[in-house]
Design a protein that fits this description.
CobT_VWA_dom; VWF_A; single chain; 356 residues; seven-stranded mixed sheet; NorD/CobT; Nitric oxide reductase activation protein NorD
Length: 356
């Protein structure tokens, strides 16, 4: 699996049995010592990130331990999330991908072609955040001075709105899911997905929007029926996460409903008012043994409906041959038909900006 991290421990929890993989988390995390890392401090006016060097000897044991703790936490939370679902018996590993100097160079090369577009949209968006007025109402509250009848349909008791103080900015959190099935290698889909992920990541950094970016695949082995790659996470912000994104690659099958449930649960638990979960996928769900067709579609629709009631908004960016099926699963109002892959980065960034 390249430079991805695996969970070393034999774990038996919630009916899920894990065994050590040859590509262990320890071996990949140690590889970080061999390269010079870069830390982001700010952005230039043209949207380019400013870096300062962190030498390998400055990589502390404390930092490595935090990464190990994060991996264990992500695995535990993910397994707990699906323990009461149809995925409870699926053998799952959440990886925390590593990165190297080649990943840094690839990222900088791809971002060079995107920074003008991303920077322009961010410059138009940030004044709206800086000049938020107190007369606006923040909705989806348990109490407040204004009753919102249209919120009753969600049945979450958040039926009121209250005036937002001048110091309280619009609140948004973004989850971006990337399908890493084998078919992503066709027709430039992987390159388009990487460019889109970079654009969304940098836009969110500029606008200080919390973001989690997960990739996923299924059936890489009998011991790893579901693989999730935590490139960027809400609980652990690291400016080097941008380089981890270069680990996105085509792998095997896709068990969409499982990763959507795991990510949606994290977003639903966040404190932000608006929660977006965007899926970039080129095909319908299909994984062993029977996760396909109507069965998989029903699982995804049930997951979407369940977490929409908890305030998560879903969108699907369809970039492959199964666009009609993806549209039916997510709903026509949550579906983006990306016919021109070159426009995918800009379309996603502009869509996110509309929620600020």
């Amino acid at each position: 699996m390249g430079s991805t991290d695996l969970d070393n421990d034999k774990t038996e929890e919630k009916g899920i049995t894990l065994k050590k993989s040859s590509d262990s988390e320890e071996s990949s995390s140690e590889a970080m010592d061999d390269s010079t890392h870069m830390e982001r401090s700010d952005y230039l006016e043209n949207g380019s990130p400013i870096y300062h060097e962190t030498k390998p000897e400055q990589e502390s044991e404390e930092r490595k331990q935090k990464e190990r703790d994060l991996r264990k936490k992500l695995n535990r939370v993910a397994r707990e999330t699906v323990s009461d679902s149809i995925h409870s018996k699926v053998k799952l590993i959440v990886h925390r991908p590593d990165y190297d100097q080649e990943n840094q160079q690839e990222y900088n090369s791809l971002y060079a072609g995107l920074k003008s577009i991303v920077g322009e949209i961010a410059r138009k968006t940030m004044p709206l955040l800086e000049h938020e007025v107190s007369s606006e109402f923040a909705g989806n509250r348990y109490y407040g001075s204004k009753f919102q009848a249209n919120s009753v349909a969600y049945r979450d008791y958040r039926y009121f709105a209250r005036k937002r103080p001048p110091t309280e900015s619009p609140s948004l959190v973004v989850g971006l899911r990337v399908d890493e099935s084998a078919s992503m290698s066709a027709f430039g889909r992987l390159e388009a997905a990487k460019r889109a992920v970079i654009a969304v990541y940098e836009f969110c950094q500029m606008c200080r929007i919390p973001i989690m970016i997960y990739g996923d695949t299924a059936d890489v082995s009998k011991l790893e029926q579901m693989s999730i790659f935590a490139y960027a996470d809400l609980d652990h912000t690291d400016s080097n996460d941008r380089f981890r994104l270069m680990g996105i690659r085509p792998r095997s099958n896709n068990r969409d409903g499982m990763v959507l449930r795991i990510m949606a649960e994290r977003l639903a638990a966040s404190s932000q008012q608006t929660k977006l979960l965007i899926s970039i996928s080129d095909g319908q769900p299909k994984a062993m043994d029977v996760y396909s067709g109507d069965y998989a579609a029903a699982d995804m629709q049930q997951t979407i409906e369940e977490y929409e009631r908890k305030g998560v908004r879903f969108f699907a960016a369809a970039i492959g041959q199964d666009k009609d099926i993806i549209s039916e699963i997510y709903g026509h109002d949550k579906y983006l038909d990306i016919s021109n892959l070159q426009t995918l980065p800009e379309q996603l960034v502009r869509m996110i900006s509309r929620f600020l």
